[in-house]
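Postdoc handover notes: sequence design on the structure in folder B. Input tokens:
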């Protein structure tokens, strides 16, 4: 079909370690190699996008760069046998938006091995209400279900008002589980109860930095999105033969623990890797999201913005004042 001009967010290093963000006119000719060209209709914002947009070399090594680890759209060109022009697809994770031009541009070109066929139960826009955050939450819940989670369990969700946490609370409450949500410093208790949290606890009543190897048993399962002292406190207060999933390091990547929760209580810690999740498990998880895990209040958990408003929204994420999910309409 030839080269196409399109709009995208471009992050440039103006001078060393100083970065600018602007919506620029780009060309598909400059996109990386790949066997599927996708017209991106919707994307969404994640913590990792904010890091990339602010020059974090741990996320993006080379600039100029277009961030966006989420994309949903329509196949325009394909040399892969599994995808045809007109197919509705989702791309999240792998290297998208990190060192490969990402979903905050109106076109992406990627390997077909990164592409998920959109389940019939989701619209393209709805898939981006979930995005990487929702996919990560669903992977965490799938792991706990496989471990043996049951309706009598008390489940803790940390970082519960953020992207991953709010979707974890929503899926779990929608499917009948009792949720304790860790509040944020900005007090999101009303919001958390609206999305199904039975109990809301304050960080001061939960995070323990005393160094005690074990804490009082309070819950059977936990979805942790914060890492650091929150994850340590969760593990030390999980009851015998319970399980904790770990998918984030917002507080810290460090984990101060003894082995006692594991050898005296039999607690299991699962790491959740959404970036390189194998495709069969990835497709299964998206099918669950589009099916029994699709909660009816998803629109209340999200807001939609145009591409031109992305930089402002990134600042909210950086400041820690971001709530729920932000969907980006690339053609608004």
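Designed sequence:
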């Amino acid at each position: 079909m030839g080269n196409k001009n399109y709009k995208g967010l471009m992050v440039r290093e103006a001078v060393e370690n100083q970065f600018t963000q602007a919506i620029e006119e780009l060309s598909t000719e400059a996109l990386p190699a790949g066997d599927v060209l996708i017209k991106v209709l919707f994307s969404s914002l994640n913590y990792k996008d904010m890091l990339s947009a602010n020059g974090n070399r741990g996320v993006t090594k080379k600039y100029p760069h277009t961030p966006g680890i989420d994309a949903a759209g329509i196949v325009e060109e394909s040399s892969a046998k599994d995808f045809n022009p007109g197919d509705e697809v989702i791309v999240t994770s792998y290297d998208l938006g990190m060192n490969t031009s990402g979903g905050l541009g109106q076109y992406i070109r990627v390997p077909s091995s990164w592409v998920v066929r959109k389940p019939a139960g989701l619209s393209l826009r709805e898939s981006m209400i979930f995005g990487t955050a929702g996919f990560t939450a669903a992977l965490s819940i799938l792991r706990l279900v496989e471990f043996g989670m049951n309706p009598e369990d008390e489940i803790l969700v940390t970082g519960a008002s953020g992207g991953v946490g709010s979707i974890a609370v929503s899926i779990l409450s929608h499917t009948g589980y009792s949720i304790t949500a860790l509040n944020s410093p900005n007090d999101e208790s009303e919001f958390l109860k609206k999305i199904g949290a039975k109990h809301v606890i304050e960080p001061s009543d939960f995070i323990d930095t005393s160094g005690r190897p074990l804490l009082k048993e309070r819950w059977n399962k936990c979805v942790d999105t914060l890492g650091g002292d929150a994850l340590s406190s969760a593990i030390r207060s999980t009851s015998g033969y319970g399980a904790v999933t770990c998918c984030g390091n917002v507080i810290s990547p460090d984990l101060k623990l003894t082995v006692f929760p594991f050898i005296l209580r039999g607690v299991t810690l699962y790491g959740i890797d959404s970036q390189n999740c194998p495709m069969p498990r990835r497709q299964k998880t998206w099918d669950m999201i589009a099916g029994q895990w699709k909660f009816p209040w998803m629109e209340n958990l999200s807001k939609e913005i145009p591409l031109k408003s992305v930089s402002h929204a990134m600042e909210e994420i950086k400041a820690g004042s971001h709530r729920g999910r932000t969907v980006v309409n690339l053609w608004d």
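Context for whoever picks this up: The chain has two domains: 5-118+299-329, 132-271. Don't rerun without checking with the PI first.
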